Amino acid sequence: PPNAIQVVEAESQAELLKQSFFMVVPLIVLFIALIIIGKKKSWFIPSKKGFIIGALSSFLLQGLHELLHGIAFPKGSTVYIGIIKGNFSGYATSTDPLNITQCIVYYLLPAFVLGIVPLLIFAFDKEKKSTFCWFCYGFALIGLIQTAPDWFGLFPILKQVPREAIIQMSGWHTYWYLQ
User: Fold this and answer.
1) At what angle do helices 131-160 and 117-124 cross, to 10 degrees?
2) I want to staple 58 with a disulfide (CB 3.0 to 4.6 A). Which of 24, 30, 32, 142 is the partner?
3) In tens digits, what is the pLDDT along the chain, a chain of 179 residues?
4) Which of 33, 55, 51, 42 lies closest to 127 in space, CA to CA?
5) What is the CA radius of gyration of the chain?
6) Which of 28, 19, 17 has its CA nearest to residue 142?
7) How far apart are CA 141 and CA 114, in angstroms?
8) Beta-bridge partner residues of 59
């Protein structure tokens, strides 16, 4: 609509990835520190096989990440999902607008399903010895790393967009308007 206001956000996928790098490094350090401390304290015995298979599986399921974004759009929406040439980053977008709740779901659902849920499975496994447990840990690490740009896409919207606004994506940019 002509009265739409553009959200001040990263100008490109490359800029967004650069911004999210500052979230990724501490996340990796935290995951590695947990393994080192846990091993030294004999809290658990890591399964390298499970961890590596989980991490690779999560990486290869980039399409699922984008499908989860697509779930947030209203029923009947046409959602476009693809890979951005040159940097193996995915996208999911639609010409249909979102309300603020749908927008939050759009940005956070992949982090929840591909990062938080497997991390909780790992956390609640008391012995942390099974290959599946460590599969979940590796899966969660990559699942959370891949969602770092989503968090940085959501922050400007939460800061700039009124709760009652309608949010519209157009190409790389996001706009909002009041009805």
Assistant:
1) 140
2) 142
3) 889 999 999 988 788 888 888 888 988 998 888 888 888 877 777 788 999 999 999 999 989 999 999 999 999 999 999 887 777 788 999 999 999 999 999 999 999 999 999 999 998 988 888 899 999 999 999 999 999 999 999 999 999 999 999 999 998 899 999 99
4) 42
5) 18
6) 28
7) 9
8) none
Distance separating alpha carbons of residues 6 and 15, to the nearest angstrom: 17
Check residue 94 and give its pLDDT. Answer: 95
Q: How far apart are CA 139 and CA 159, in angstroms?
A: 30
Cα–chain center distance at 161: 21
User: Which residues fall within 8 angstroms of residue 80, CB to CB, at 6 or more apart?
Assistant: 91, 92, 93, 94
What type of residue sits at position 164?
Answer: E
Q: Which two tokens stand for residue 153?
A: 């896409």
Length of the chain: 179
> Which among 93, 131, 138, 134 has a CA at the least distance from the CA of 115?
138
Q: What's the pTM value of the predicted model, to 2 decimals? A: 0.89
For residue 116, give both structure tokens.
């938080």
* Amino acid at position 101, single letter: T
